[in-house]
Every structure is written in structure tokens, then in C-alpha cells.
Amino acid sequence: MAAPGPDARETPDGLPLRDGYATLVTFVDNPTVMLWEKETTPTGIDNGEPIDQTTFHNTTYATKWPQEISEITDGSFLAAYDPDVEDEIMSLVGNNQEITVTFNDGSTKAIWGYLKSFIPQRHTKGQQPTAEITIVATNMDDSFAEYGPAVASASGT
What we know:
Layout: E1 24-27, E2 35-41, E3 45-46, E4 51-52, E5 64-65, E6 71-72, E7 75-81, H1 86-92, E8 97-102, E9 108-120, E10 130-137, E11 150-152
Antiparallel strand pairs: 1-8, 2-7, 3-6, 4-5, 7-10, 8-9, 9-10, 9-11
């Protein structure tokens, strides 16, 4: 192999999301949970720290290599809530299930995961009370079969 050379950036296929409104989160075990999304951070992908490959035979640069497997990062959302949601939250916390994020263009990303936390935020005069909800991707169903995110594009993207 030779040293890397420049490559030209090409126009990507598809269409970018034009607005974050309204990105919604669905828990399959309770699709009508009393939460109203205000801000959403979908799960992402993280390959982790590089693996150091440097040896005493390197002469100029430290060398690294990517890990073989990647992690699906936590997702979260800020939501308005009904105080009666507490029982519903208790049934979702720690319960491995399908969780779907629906983007405003109609595309979806479904994962296996669970609701990790529901943390009410400070209540302030003149502001709607909210809670920060965190979801964790488990990447496996209840039979321990491994699955990554299932992404479905919206029509026309």
C-alpha cells in the first residue's frame, strides 16, 4: 500500500432532515405513555477509543487501529409529563423492548433497548415542568439474539 492521497467529496444521496420538529419516541410496551417530547437526542454510534498499535519499530508517528465492534450510544429526550406517569414509567424502566424513533420526514430507527431513567427537572414559575428521559440500546432481544438498529427511510429519501 501507498501513502494516502486526496479524494474528492461527492454529493450524497438522500435528503437531509430539515427540522428537528417533531422527532418522537415510541416504547412498544406502552406507545401512549404520558410523555410529550420537547427535545430529542436519537441514539448514535461510537467505535470507542482507538487501539494503540505503536511499537518500537515506529520511527515518526504513533499508530492506531479501530475497534472491531461499535457501541450504540444512549438516546434521550426532554418531555413534558403528566404526574400520573409514575406507574407507567415503573413498568418501562429496565424493561428490554423495541424502541422506535420517528423523524419528522417519516423515517424511523428502531432499537432493542430499555428506559434507563426518568428524571424530573427543576419546576420553575412560568415554565412547563419537564423530565429528562434516557434510553439505552441493549442490541439484543429477550432470546439474546444480537440486533443493531433497524432504519427505515421515508418515501422519497
